[in-house]
Amino acid sequence: MTQDTISQGKTLAIVSYFTFVGVIIAIIMNLEKKNDFVWFHARQMIGLILLLIFSNVTEKYVNSTLGTAFWVITFACWLFGVISAATGKSKPIPVIGKIFQKWFSNLGQ
């Protein structure tokens, strides 16, 4: 990825991390531009949304403490993603980021 691609997509990459609506906005606004930096961070956030849903279901139906632990992990991963986007880096979220990139590889193609 070039520095020009990153600088052009940085704002939308950051927007993608702010709620489900932010991901939709980033995806729609990037459909025409097809900026790889934005697609990378949109895929990361979609994965984080799934992780958040999993943590909420776990907290409600399995174990409250375990669900809270998953929620804290999700929040830490979200924070990592926001910082990565703000600094112009395409670093996947530790442990699960590469999985999210693989699962959602069709997004942005």
Question: Can you describe this structure in just a few lines?
Answer:
This protein has 109 residues and is mainly alpha-helical. Helices cover 75% and strands 0% of the residues. The protein has helices at 3-15, 19-30, 36-62, 64-86, 97-103.
Structural summary, described in words:
29% of the residues are buried. Helix content is 75%, strand content 0%. The chain is built from 5 helices and no strands. The protein is mainly alpha-helical and 109 residues long.
Mean pLDDT: 91
Number of distinct helices: 5
Overall number of strands: 0
Rg computed from alpha carbons, rounded to a whole number of angstroms: 14 Å
Work out the helicity level: over 70%
> What is the element string, with H for helices and E for strands?
HHHHH
| Global structural class | mainly alpha
